[in-house]
Amino acid sequence: MKKLLFLFIISLKLYSAHAQETDTIPPYQKDSLHIPAFTVLKVDSTYINDKAIPKDKPVVIIYFSPECGHCQITADEFSKKMKDMKDIYFVWVSYYPLPEVREFAKKFNLQQFTNIIIARDENYAIPSYYRVKFTPFMALYNKEHHLVKTWDQGTDADTLIKLAK
User: Fold this and answer.
1) 118 part of a folded domain
2) Which sign does the torsion angle of CA 68, 134, 30, 75 carry?
3) Which of 42, 74, 129, 132 is deepest in the core (most CB within 10 A)?
4) Secretion signal: which residues (predicted)?
């Protein structure tokens, strides 16, 4: 009887250890038919969530750092080409404190565009969902909000314009 109990405990421990293996597939690769659920704090100090994103427009989610040189270059380029990207909805998200995110938006005049949200992701939902390693990280969704493509280190405006059609 003791041997059976001992074998049962060993089996249970082995099963438990096996069950704790980490999932190596990022959530966005398992569900490419939806924009991730999130609630973020906009630079105007109001909250917005994924349900508020327009359903009839392509969407680009950009995870950025205000201190990142590539993020600054991207913001400058996108700001200058926004006339050509007016039909794309942008969600710029950072984990940095809101004053730094607000300063970034101001520096690149991002708040003037009605198709851009700039916000702080207090819950770290976006980088967890995409398993972001570098900034700027970008995810492009089509008008139906199905994932088209992701870029671990961003892309240029012309590529987005071409793929968003």
Assistant:
1) yes
2) positive
3) 74
4) 1-19
Render 21-44 in DSSP notation, one character per residue. PPP-S-HHHH-TTSPPP-EEEETT
Domain holding 114, by residue range, is 56-164
In a domain? residue 15: no
> Is residue 38 over pLDDT 70?
yes
**58-103 per-position pLDDT tens digit:** 999 999 999 999 999 999 999 999 999 999 999 999 999 999 999 9
Phi–psi pair at 137, nearest 5 degrees: -95, 140
The reply to whether 119 falls in a domain is: yes
Based on the structure, what is the number of domains in the chain? 1
Contact predicate 53/91, CB 8 Å: yes
DSSP string computed for 63-121: E--TT-HHHHHHHHHHHHTGGGGTTSEEEEEESS-HHHHHHHHHHTTGGG-TTEEEEE-
> Tell me: the pLDDT tens digits for 139-154?
999 999 999 999 999 9
